[in-house]
Amino acid sequence: MLALIVLVALVACLMSACIDPTPPSQPSEPETPGTGITWYSYDEGMKIAQEQNKPVMIDVYTGWCKWCKELDRVIYSDTDVVNLADKFVCIKINADKHRDLAAKYNPTGGVPTIVFLRSDGTETHRLGGYPRGGAEAFMHEMVVALNNA
């Protein structure tokens, strides 16, 4: 029972890292944020992945999550990450606008969540939260996904 309480407290703390107490005064971010990486909608991206037999990287985000914005600003604009992302079909899912897809790929609701899939849609692994270790650590996860694709 104590373990369950500790687990619930830990999850609550982790999820609170992306909660901004002030609501956005403007509409959510555009569907394709991030500099240098080509982002697709879910349907278009999955079709391309199957046609080209490429692995998929899905970013589940929200427009109000400061760590999601930091991913766009720092990680997704890193030249090496952008180059490695060309080996994937990259899909962004706004969890506020596409709740059904967000629930499918991110049932816990914490953002950001990055999910790596094979071209057939089979999940290989996922990352929750902002990657500790920055772009280098994120690229390592991308390479793991490529090796498992």
User: Distance N terminus to C terminus?
Assistant: 38 Å
Q: Which residues form runs of ≥5 with pLDDT under 50?
A: 4-34
Beta-sheet strand percentage? 15-25%
Shape: globular
CATH topology: Glutaredoxin
Report the radius of gyration as a whole number of Å: 15 Å
Q: Give the CATH superfamily.
A: Glutaredoxin
H/E order of the elements? HEHEHHEHEEH
Number of helices: 6
Q: How much is the average pLDDT? A: 82
Oligomer: single chain
The CATH architecture: 3-Layer(aba) Sandwich
Percent helix range: 40-55%
Largest sheet: 5 strands, mixed
Would you report the number of β strands? 5
State the strand order across the main sheet: 1-3-2-4-5
Overall tally of structural domains: 1
The CATH first-level class comes to Alpha Beta
Structural class: alpha/beta
